[in-house]
Design a protein that fits this description.
six-stranded mixed sheet, four-stranded mixed sheet, 11 helices, Sugar kinase, nucleotide-binding, Ribokinase-like, kinase
């Protein structure tokens, strides 16, 4: 989507200037992968408009291969970000009638998916409507038939659909995953449980089929359950500026290390560092780290306050 972010603190009715950029979970993950040296392609649907041009330009500038259908009948989605008094960030989405909500199975490049080393999808796309949900199911089926591992980030968006609507669809998506990412609240939704222990939630998700389950816990860190082995990772302490995109940074960094062949503790550590960095700078993806930054002394064992 296009992104308009307020330049100053205050409610939007009092903000006079905003900065134009792009944002969105899947594109954030794609950029994170590219910055860490992974060859990555992004599949989507954009309006045949200047905002769509901006999305394509930014993604390509970040080294992402773009496969975007340009739709003359619907605009590119948009989100507005405000910084209300008292701290924090609030985001408003305008995409239910956008081009992304018209994504269909025919927009998916089957050959591209079949030759990938991994397919990554999120629970956001099925929430946009019946056609996008079918597009995700089609991409997953193509990957399965080709022996391509499927990565799923639950990414439940309560503003797009109710918990009752989302739960069965997200559960089906989880069941199709080889690698799964979920917050603890998302895990409870999928499992229909009140359990709070992260290890219990991870085990419940693994019982649905994924061989690799990662539970994101925000400032409490994360854990992964892989082949029956539980690995925990503490969060790196930072001064919070903007949390938007931190989860995507985590997922992108984890997948980059997985593709590179790093072990699970190494994947989690890189992911936690990337997520911490994202929290220190405004923007959805601008602070995503490069490999050089992660390997430098500036990102040593401790992220300084």
């Amino acid at each position: 989507m296009g992104l308009l972010a307020a330049d100053t603190v205050g409610h939007l009715q009092h903000v006079s200037t905003m900065t134009l950029g792009i944002g969105g979970a899947e594109s954030n993950v794609a950029i994170a992968l590219a910055r860490l040296g992974t060859s990555v392609a992004w599949i989507g649907r954009l309006g045949a408009d200047s905002l769509g041009d901006r999305v394509v330009r930014e993604l390509r500038a970040e080294g992402v291969e773009v496969h975007a259908v340009r739709d003359p009948a619907a605009p590119t989605g948009l989100m507005l970000k405000e910084r209300p008094p008292g701290g924090g960030v609030r985001v408003w989405y305008y995409r239910s009638q956008g081009a992304g909500a018209r994504l269909s199975p025919s927009d998916v490049d089957d050959e591209l998916v079949a030759r990938a080393s991994l397919l990554h999808v999120t629970g956001i796309t099925p929430a946009l409507g019946e056609a996008p949900a079918k597009a995700v199911a089609h991409a997953v089926a193509v990957a399965r038939d080709a022996g391509v591992p499927v990565s799923v980030d639950v990414n439940h968006r309560a503003t797009l659909w109710s918990d009752a609507e989302a739960a069965p669809v997200l559960r089906g998506l989880v069941e199709s995953a080889d690698v799964l990412f979920a917050g603890d609240d998302e895990a409870r939704l999928v499992l229909g449980t009140d359990a709070t222990e992260p290890a219990t939630l991870a085990a419940g998700l693994a019982d649905l089929g994924p061989g690799e389950v990662v539970v994101k816990l925000g400032d409490r860190g994360a854990l992964a359950l892989v082949g029956g082995l539980l690995v925990e990772q503490a969060a790196f302490p930072v001064t919070l500026v903007d949390p938007v995109g931190a989860g995507d940074a985590f997922v992108g960094a984890y997948l980059a290390e997985r593709v590179a062949g790093l072990d699970v503790p190494g994947r989690l550590r890189t992911a936690a560092r990337a997520g911490a960095l994202m929290c220190t700078v405004p923007g959805d993806w601008e602070a995503l780290p490069t490999r050089a930054l992660l390997d430098s002394d500036r990102m040593g064992p401790d992220v300084r306050r």
